[in-house]
Amino acid sequence: YLYLGATGNYDQATIFDYALSQEQVTQLGAEGYAFNFIPNDRINVGNDSSLNITGDLTLSIWMKSTSTALKGIFSKNGNTAGTKIFALYTGVASGNDILYSWVSNDGSTLSFTNITLSGRQITDGNWHNIVMVNDPTTTNKYLYVDGVEVHTTTNGTTIHSSTVDTLIGTYSSSLYHFNGELSNAQIFNSVIPPTGSNSVQTIYNNGKPLSNMSGFTSLQGWWKLDDSEIFNTTSAEW
Question: Cα-atom radius of gyration of the chain, to the nearest Å?
Fold first, then answer.
């Protein structure tokens, strides 16, 4: 049987009886980025054991949006007591972008990091790379935009071990759905350094998502959400 198995909306599913060329796949990929989220869209990637990270954590995702609404990007949040693990989301207030993130060490108490950026830096309709790093050893949490650190806080913590599902494009299954495009969502079970080999700057790659992540041995999940996703004969690099 054929099963299309993520939570959300679908459109223009197509089956071919031959292998598409890269050029053909690119034509299907909506300018290279095939996942354009509208409110109530989301992707549920499940709760595989590799995603139940309790220590060092790095999240990376590319976003493109002009929406001023509060919107989730990446989360592991059942939105009930004992199931709040981590979340990364954004919004606009008084003409400025606000980047929100949190982690929880008990599934209920949230360690917040909320920062206000000057102007519409990440909701300006261009592609931007957003990275959150949680370091429980130093109790630091870092936020990066386009390879540059924009905030450090001392609320990094060991993360609660709930097996709640990981979501892309929303804060929870019912709140703050993303409005815009997302690509190359990644989860690492390590503290990715800001610079050097296999760093946050490496991930940013001068504004172009990497096509090869072989140097990042701590990569636990990679959802490309772009025109290369199906070209390599697998549905996800995970």
Answer: 17
pTM for this entry:
0.83
pLDDT of residue 42: 87
- Say if residue 100 is exposed, middle or buried (CB neighbours under 10 Å; 0-12, 13-18, 19+): buried
Look-up of token digits 């790095």: 58
Rounded distance between C-alpha atoms, residue 77 and residue 139, angstroms: 21
Q: Specify whether the CB–CB gap between 130 and 89 falls below 8 A.
A: no
Tell me which long-range contacts 228-231 makes (C-beta under 8 A, separation of at least 24): 228/25, 229/34, 230/25, 231/20, 231/22, 231/25
* Banded model confidence at residue 143, pLDDT cuts 50, 70, 90: very high
Q: Token match 């989860």: residue? A: 187
**Most confident among 36-40, 81-85, 226-230 (mean pLDDT):** 81-85
* Cα dist from 180 to 21, 40, 130, 134, whole Å: 27, 12, 14, 26
